[in-house]
Amino acid sequence: MLKMNYDLEGALKEYLYLLEKEAYFEAHEVLEEAWHPLRKADHPLKNLVKGLINGAIAFEHLKRGRKNAQQNACKVMASFERYKYLSAQATEHVLLFEKACHSIEVLKKENKGVFDVLVP
């Protein structure tokens, strides 16, 4: 697989595309690559991006169906839950962040049996 350097906007667009294709691990990888420079620069959006990364990987756990998949999915989803509110405070790429958070919320609803306490 060709390794690409994604800017945040490009990574968010690719993340959304990959979520739609149920390529959760790949979505995680794309956004993680864009997250590293944010983390190193202590960027205010670093935790929101981290939450989205973990949101995607939660569904990869479920997709693979390994032992403790549901427990692991809930564990990493906690990071998304902790930081999703930051999408309302995003000053850049706000529409992409809102769409990404919405996509994770839709996936949670589709997996309500796993995320019962997180889905209204």
Summarize the structure.
Helix content is 68%, strand content 0%. It has helices at 8-20, 24-40, 46-64, 69-83, 94-110.
Structure description:
The chain contains five helices and no strands. The protein is globular. The termini are far apart. It has one domain: Hyaluronidase domain-like (Orthogonal Bundle), CATH 1.10.3450. It has helices spanning 8-20, 24-40, 46-64, 69-83, 94-110. By secondary structure, the chain is mostly helical.
Spell the H/E element sequence: HHHHH
Which structural class should the secondary elements be placed in? mainly alpha
Specify the overall morphology. globular
Secondary-structure arrangement, i.e. CATH architecture: Orthogonal Bundle
Proportion of strand residues: under 5%
> Over the alpha carbons, how many angstroms does the gyration radius reach?
13 Å
The proportion of residues forming helix, as a percent range, comes to 55-70%
Q: Which class in CATH terms?
A: Mainly Alpha
What is the strand tally?
Answer: 0
- Oligomerization state of this entry? single chain
End-to-end C-alpha gap = 39 Å
Largest sheet: none
Low-confidence regions: none
Overall number of domains: 1
Average pLDDT, to the nearest integer?
A: 89
CATH topology: Hyaluronidase domain-like
Helical segment tally? 5
